[in-house]
UniProtKB/TrEMBL annotation:
<keyword id="KW-0949">S-adenosyl-L-methionine</keyword>
<dbReference type="InterPro" id="IPR016435">
    <property type="entry name" value="DPH1/DPH2"/>
</dbReference>
<keyword id="KW-0408">Iron</keyword>
<keyword id="KW-0175">Coiled coil</keyword>
<dbReference type="GO" id="GO:0017183">
    <property type="term" value="P:protein histidyl modification to diphthamide"/>
</dbReference>
<comment type="similarity">
    <text>Belongs to the DPH1/DPH2 family.</text>
</comment>
<feature type="coiled-coil region">
    <location>
        <begin position="121"/>
        <end position="148"/>
    </location>
</feature>
<dbReference type="InterPro" id="IPR042264">
    <property type="entry name" value="DPH1/DPH2_2"/>
</dbReference>
<dbReference type="GO" id="GO:0051539">
    <property type="term" value="F:4 iron, 4 sulfur cluster binding"/>
</dbReference>
<keyword id="KW-0808">Transferase</keyword>
<keyword id="KW-0411">Iron-sulfur</keyword>
<keyword id="KW-0004">4Fe-4S</keyword>
<comment type="pathway">
    <text>Protein modification; peptidyl-diphthamide biosynthesis.</text>
</comment>
<dbReference type="InterPro" id="IPR035435">
    <property type="entry name" value="DPH1/DPH2_euk_archaea"/>
</dbReference>
<dbReference type="GO" id="GO:0090560">
    <property type="term" value="F:2-(3-amino-3-carboxypropyl)histidine synthase activity"/>
</dbReference>
<keyword id="KW-0479">Metal-binding</keyword>
<dbReference type="Pfam" id="PF01866">
    <property type="entry name" value="Diphthamide_syn"/>
</dbReference>
Amino acid sequence: MSGHELEIDEIIKRVKELKAGTVGLQFPEGLKLHAVEVARRIEVETGATVIISADPCFGACDVADVDMNGVADVLVHFGHKPLPLNYDMPVIFVDASSKMELLGSVGNAMSLLEGYKKIGLVTTVQHLKQLEEVAEFLEQNGKEVVINEGAGTTWGQVLGCNFSSIKNLDVEAFLYVGSGNFHALGITLFTDKPVIIADPYLDEARLITDFSDRILRIRFARIAKAMDAKTFGIIVSTKKGQNRLDTAKELKNLLNAEGREGFILLLDDVSPEKLLPYMDLDAFVMTACPRIAIDDSSRYKKPLLTPQELEIAIGKREWENYEIDEIKYGGLNNKNK
Ligand code: SF4
């Protein structure tokens, strides 16, 4: 059906076992094109009525259990692993593992890994099933591979808001298998170790250094711009996996204690358009998805900071202690310091 394993037979079996009369389906953007075909098969083979969640789905933080509760008997969520959250209804999580070949780009990474013996290996959920194959390849090429699990993430997995699986690993360098630069940037900032990306989508390998320097320069410019801000909008997401109201309240108190004002803004999806009515505020702080402030920074007219960046802007954290923002799952708490 696609370049992903959608595990339809298994889903049909589970739906029959649960005797579900109505089944909710939720796909991340990249898999939505398969929604109708999956719905058709489930309806034909189980007799259930399928309801497709057509809203955007941004990640494991954004499961439609609240919307589907009372609408469907079970929700099938594709493309992510569950977070340690309480879901309002039965949810079947389907990894939707990629079938993409990884060893080509990993092979390309070998020259960049030269001189490093002990390698930390990580990826995102789509490629987890192939991580063992990648580890074997590295070991056959003389590397010692270290893979760990995190708080709220499984063996070898990083999320854009959760880097716990790579912290305190005794390795000389990291190999991140996947697309984009964001995850590798997070690993660099948390570990200060060289990070090499094996990107199967571009069939190439690259070192993250130049990119992380550029991003940090942009972040420091945003922080500098917010230093004189007197009024802040503190953004809180209603999405269960992104909601950090406690953090927002703490930031509000911190701002008040510094003689500045913070106003909490509660939103579902965050976008520059939704902030337009609040442009009389001097700057914004993002307690929702940590990626938004970094990835979409240029789309916002006013400085948009992470909680840690706010601390720097108001003199509560040293520039040298810059950290990328994380959402701490795993029952730790909602606080992020
Ligand atoms: S909060 Fe952001 S980085 Fe974390 S799972 Fe959601 S979309 Fe991904």
